Amino acid sequence: MTSIPPFPPGGGTTVTRGGALPDVTYDVTVVGAGVVGCAIARELAARPGLRVALVDASNDVGDGTSKANTAILHTGFDAVPGSLEARLVREGSRLLAAYAAGSGIPVEPVGALLVAWDQEQLDALPALLAKAERNGYDAARIIGPEEVRTREPHLGPGALGALDVPGESVICPWTTVLAYATQAVRAGVDLHLNCRVNTVDPSDDDLHVLGTERGALRTRWLVNAAGLHADTVDRLLGHHDFTVTPRRGQLIVYDKLARDLVRHILLPVPTALGKGVLVAPTVYGNVLLGPTAEDLDDKSATGSTAEGIATLREKGRRILPELLDEEVTAVYAGLRAATEHDDYRIRADPGRRALTVGGIRSTGLTASLAIAAYAAELLDDAGADLPAAGALPPVRMPNLGEAFPRPYQRADLIAADPAYGTVVCHCERVTRGEIRDALSATVPPGSLEGLRRRTRARGGRCQGFHCGADVRELFERGAELRD
Amino acid sequence: MRRERIVDVLVVGAGPAGLAAAAVLASLGAGEIEVLDREPRAGGMPRHCHHGGFGPLGLEGPGFAERWVRAAERSGAVLRTGVTVTNWAGPLTLDTTSPRGLERITARAVVLATGARERPRAARLVPGARPAGVLTTGEFLRAVHVHRQRVGTRAVVVGAESVSFAALDALRLAGVDVAALVTEHPRHQTSPVRALDARLRRGVPLLTGATVTELLGRGRVSGVRLAHRDGRTAHVPCDTVVFTGDFVPEHELARRGGLLLDPGTRGPAIDGAFRTARRGVFAVGNLLHAVEPARAVAREGAAAGTAVRRYLADGDWPSASVPLRVAAPLVWVAPNLVTPDEPLPYGGRFALRTAEFVGRAPLVITQDGRTLHHARLPRPPVPNRPFHIGGEWAARVRADGGPVRVDLFEGAPG
């Protein structure tokens, strides 16, 4: 059996999704259980004796911006040199690569090509190369059209050259968030879901009382990592530092049978007209096309549109014409937390015993571990007086990546437990054993969608035609399956 | 640690086509015949179709599936369920996963009978939110018939072909009201009796010339937005949306094996004897032409069994074949390879499909500008339903010629 053992013995592994909150006073409460909030909670969990809560409005971790991004582990080669973002992405990239290797988060170092399709884009490459070097990234180089063609044989006609960035990787964003949350909860962090923070009452000099959907929560320090809603939470604290304008990115996920068409992350060359649309492999073996960039007012507008899909198909046809003949597995939209500022907005307010981690855009996944370390540093400087960091017991996550053996391919696992040989979701080859493990994990899924992000079940080309009813049955019988 | 085994014929898929092929092969004494299915039970898609139309006296899908399972077992074929074929390990060797472990099975002949499925909402590029409550007929039928799950209270059914009306009946039995059937076509594509019954006796409106332009709802679907061809739009509240029809072959294994696919059907390209482009590999059933009725598919399976038996006996494989190509409004033809030395397909006919209503149009078959066949269709073809033509003309195909073109010249719809 390889199901995750209970940990720590006697410790509180607390994940709540309903009912009253515990009657305790937390030292630090992190609002927002996205990739940044979970990373911060994990960082704080390493401080022995610190009582930490992680709260989120949703029924699961990573259910906002973090679940719907382009899933790239960036080098930070194209950040604004000297910015906080550039520094944290550079540091975070190294930290996350090492963390992923140790915890089983799938990463594939496929490298990126910024393909120039016209003279303006070609002319922009030397400046991008220089920018990469100023960011401390010196492995990039400019390659000619022949080499581009050799390395990407299915590319559409007309590529004039490319900037080769070998250090860019694709990563599983879902496992990353879950690994952070799992480690944090096992180390004693209380994770409260379905727990939107509506008010912050600084009634006492040393205490915030958060009014949540599930009652009052007392905390000495507050970390605002609320992503799209970071400006709202900030206003509850009396700050008017920035406004989050949701920027919608629609993406199309193509079937696994398209995976052989593309070898690198094909990034657009950023020009005056914006950052553009990329084509990238995913660690699950699909191909991603997107995102669009639409500034909106509505922080809940995560729907796709006919125009968005048409735009993506038009751009994708130029980059990789054969991609358009492949079946589409999914269409989704994510909202990036764009602000009026060019950089991350990470600010401590010692007077209000608060720290805001705002304006974390698409680089947030890559930078998450560095953001967390920086946040702990700022909290400490602001007077939170954090205990010295210890080492957290390592975590080992189930593998969702196609580049590594999955349970259905492992004779040893199946021999020990035949449930790993029972394929439930045929498109994604997810076994009953994996679904059972996810349902009994430290941070179990709160919905079928959460189960999909932990196992990929129901996430394949048939979208449930074959397995949808079976997977729902297993999810609903969750408690029995644990035996 | 993979167990390695050898059998005479390995059939992938225990639906009507695979079972019929296996039953015929085993009864002809073709040796050790093994049928694999990834589902816990054999029988294929009809297991979930609790409605008539599968045989005389109103035989329903589960009964039909059971008959073929018994026929295959009685013939001596070995049926193994819960076994997933994961990939090819050689030209006639497949890797499998099951609770018993990993296997590598080599056969003298492989028959792919992996069937078809409906395209889900995402593949149809329907925009909007991603709420729960949006399913295909396949998922819906399993939810209600296998798991007795509650589905919803008010549904919109997208599609108006036979499977859409089957979904309508199943929804009614599950206690779900149906707000409307929606089709982009100007008319339904099922029998007039069935459509009339739905509209008059059940009171379910059929909205024609209409497409779903947006799915609405957070958490659970709350409705759909529709656009009519003339520009009118509508909002229909519902808590369930069933996307029906739009079948595509389950061709993953065929593609992973590098088999030549037909651009129209998206299934393996095959000749009249179900032979693919790879020696020893056959393909049959709805993998070839999503989707034909189960009875037709079982007949095909039986014919394929005979063809495989002959191959096992004489080892012949065509050295050359000529592809058939269609143009709009036709979407595919199957078989889609003609082997000039044995041109007539088993069953003697070709299946075709159109994308729209085209009336009793003239059908013209040519090779390099030379007319092989010219005829007016006896009945107007209906989109989403196959129609058939005889195969006598195939004898006139030249082995050294170019692709054979099949054209349907649009007449007045009628």
TrEMBL record, chain A:
* Start and end residues of each FAD dependent oxidoreductase domain: 27-378
Gene3D superfamilies (UniProt xref): BFD-like [2Fe-2S]-binding domain, D-Amino Acid Oxidase, subunit A, domain 2, FAD/NAD(P)-binding domain
Domain BFD-like [2Fe-2S]-binding: where?
Answer: 423-476
Q: Which Pfam families match?
A: DAO (PF01266), Fer2_BFD (PF04324)
User: This protein is called what?
Assistant: NAD(P)/FAD-dependent oxidoreductase
TrEMBL record, chain B:
Coiled-coil stretches noted in the UniProt entry, renumbered to this chain: none
Q: Which UniProt key words apply to this protein? A: Oxidoreductase
Q: Which domain of life is it from?
A: Bacteria
InterPro entries, alphabetized: FAD/NAD-bd_sf, FAD/NAD-binding_dom, Metab_Enz_Cyan_OpOx_G3PDH
Query: Which ranges carry the FAD/NAD(P)-binding domain?
Result: 8-296
Q: Which GO terms describe its molecular function?
A: oxidoreductase activity
Q: What is this protein called?
A: FAD-binding protein
From which organism does this entry originate? Streptomyces kanamyceticus
What does the record give as the organism's lineage? Bacteria, Bacillati, Actinomycetota, Actinomycetes, Kitasatosporales
